[in-house]
Amino acid sequence: MRTTTSRRRAGGLASCLLAALGCETRAATPAPAQPPSGEVWLTRDQVREAHIEVEPVVVQPIGNEVVTSGKVTFDDLRVSHVYSPVTGRVTRILADPGQRVKKGAALATIESPDVGNAFADLAKADSDLTAAGHDFSRQQELSGIHAVSRKELETSEDNYRRAKAEMERSKRKVALFRNGTQPRAGGDDVDVSQGFTLRAPIDGEVISRNVNPGAEVQGQYGGGTAVELFTVGELDNVWILADVFEMDLGRVKQGAPVSIKVVAYPNKTFVGRVDYITGTLDPATRTARIRCSVPNPNRELKPEMYATVSIGVAGRPAPSLPRSAVLRVSDQTVVFVEAGTLSDGRLRFARRVVAVDETEGAGYVPVVRGVSTGEPVVSVGGVLLLGML
Asked: Which residue segments constitute the domains of the chain, with CATH numbers given?
């Protein structure tokens, strides 16, 4: 009986000992380590599944473009703004917007007293010249037989010269109204008419028309303010006028490539080149005006459109980060740096406060401080890591 009781006690002690050993064994197994504040530890499979990408900080040219605003304008060498040289009333419109015209083609007809007066002045000048010529010839004949004084001969000659000068003046005025056609001195060509035909000064397309039949127009030669009636030109090549700040002017060169974006076509980029840089600065804005020549074969760019102009310039070498790596946390700018590998194979990603110059660069921004050249930073997936902290 005692032997059985002793065995039971020994078994109970063994069970307690084994239980105690088991408890000690479980207590000796360390719990998994937790990452410190500001770090995220991930396995390689987790990194792959989260599509996290790492890219080293490298030295590369930064600020290789200057971005500014601009406006689309006509190529001044391929456009003509048509005004009326005479004051009068428009009687007919002979060309519509979008119509292609040749140089000298009729655009409109204007009934103008100025034209009638000019032709009347020419007829009178022609008559006065004829009379003065006859008188001068007669005075010369009389002077040959000493029948008139020298003073009378000189007066007659002066009158003839004045009449001749007035004739030339009248002919030139009529020639302006006749679009360069020189009238003959006399005969049927000197007729009085009040009709004037406004003609295209160049080949091109009628881009705009600002007058209707019956409208009263002011002439350029009438002393008033003339209004543009037609715009004739070509839009297959346009100019972009833009302003460059003084601090960027030294990097912008004539012939530099430019890319243009406009609101009307957000998914399209137009390309051209800088063909002129002004020699002065605007004293108020401290900017210089540049002109870019841009092909426009489909006539999508319209004059007066606003544009965003990116000018290609030589960049300066600097340590740089992908712009996608830069994150905002409250008032801090941070990135995630791959800080090494743990003993179990997990990768450490540490949050790092940095300073960057976001005014330069497009896809990459220069680093001021916080990371060094060669350090691997998270270029894609930083927001995900930020949410795991």
From this structure: 39-62+317-388 (2.40.420.20), 66-77+234-316 (2.40.30.170), 113-193 (1.10.287.470)
